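Teaching note: in complex prediction, the entire set of molecules is handled at once rather than each chain in isolation. The prompt given to students was simply: 'Predict the structure of this complex.' The entities are:
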Amino acid sequence: MSAFAKSEANETFVLNLGPQHPATHGVLRVKLTMDGEYIVEAEPVLGYIHRMHEKMGENRTWAQFLPNTGRMDYLHALAYNHGYVSVVERAAGIEVPERAEYLRVITAELNRVSSHLLWFGAFILDLGGFSPLLYAFDDREHILDLLESVTGSRLTYCYFRFGGVYNDIDDNFVPGTRAFIKRLRDRMPMYHNLVTKNIILMKRLQEVGPISAEMCRKYGATGPVCRGSGINFDVRKHEPYSIYPEMDFDVPVYDQCESMARYMVRMDEIEQSLRIIEQGLDKLPEGPVMAEKVPKIIKPAKGDYYHAVETARGSFGVRVVSDGSNTPYRLKLRSPTFSNLSLFGEACQGMLLPDALALMGSLDLVIPEIDR
Amino acid sequence: MNCGAIKQKLAASGAEAVIETEYARKGFALNVQVAPEQLVAAVSVLDAEGFFIEAVTGVDWLGEQATLRKEAEAKAAAEAKAKADAAAAAGEEAPAAAPPAEQGELAEDALEAVYDFNHYDEFCRVTIRTRMVRSKPEVPTISHIYPGADWHERETHDFFGIIFVGHPYLVPLLLPEDADYHPLLKDFRP
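The expected output is the structure of the full assembly:
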């Protein structure tokens, strides 16, 4: 569709979107070549918040890297905690008590709901609707309070440890979480009435922002982006980890390949996460939350190890190479949004600028996670 | 599609070694070693089978050859000592110690590029590794097969200085645009 710009009669101009722009949710710059309101070419420019976490990993012990994991994807920090502790536990052969695994899944799913709620508010804000953000933050506040009581922090969590979790839940956590589940379930119909069925939202999202399944595959897109293109891929089902195999939940898949499909996937995932949390609370066993006999200084055997987890944005993988010493020899962090954003340049060719912004919002970008 | 069939096809495409690994222990299903010239053929096999690309990265093996030699020497010394002890225990005269092996030049250390692929329908994480000498780290690009590899290769070039021959736009992605250093090389000093 961008062919029309190639004729000499049409002049193009370069438009800089960002690095400081409300729609980019952080410091992302997109160099757009425009023909009027149409995008001829888009080139995301990364690295504005690059901190070289992978090098930091090589300069500290295995345990000292734990706080870093909460500072990449700050919206779903617990999943990043989970990915890193799982790969080290795999490498060092550490067994985790069942109660700790349950607490990990319950808190990580709560965190996923809070991430989706924030995305929901910010996405509608991108499209020009302000008030849903306030509703979403109202609900999200309850999750932050719950997680604060367990983990001690509100955003950049560092709750998981090798062999378990940092501390046990208090007496208020289970009733508080149950009350929150009921509250959010009661609110979801309101969200759908207020936003999903809104004619303006439908016109902005339906049949806009096509991403085909083949494009997902070529760019390695995962998470709600590929599930909105009809690909049934969720790491929690695909290569089950932790106690997810014991949980009964569905993976929402929509095959319209449009921005609306990605919106619906995330809205449905909130309900599925609530189901997982509910089952986790029902089945929560008694027992220790830390494995006994976890060595103070961890020295995994030589070799390399991989572990993937499903974050709110897709498959997060950690590859560690150990040389048998107390620091990682190499630590590779595969972040989902890096791959998801890489298809933006191809997907938005020939689109109107406002539609491309809707597409970008539907990718759910978290810039510190892309830049690492 | 199953991992066993992929293993056959990868082996047929000229991979040096295709090893099934224990998933629970390692986290990936197939470990494939290829020469840089065979990389494109191996990746094409995976593309035809519908795999998606997960990541591209590198590992710097600086000092590996020296470590290997040290280990070999220690092993040889231990064996010689064991032989001498056994001979002494049997009451025989200890055989003359073998002269240390001739020490040639150390082989050059390697840079390794690591490619991860996975399949949407069935779990089968394939890890392809290719090694090149540190003084001439060149490997063909796969960005014409997987456009998603474009950014991953740029990132790997940033961090390790690996040159992906044929890449259309190999400029810094995450590092500053004028960066001429590669921070993940083990001999990098800021």
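Point out the following to students. Residues 56 and 115 of chain B are 5 Å apart (CA to CA). The longest strand of chain B covers residues 51-60.
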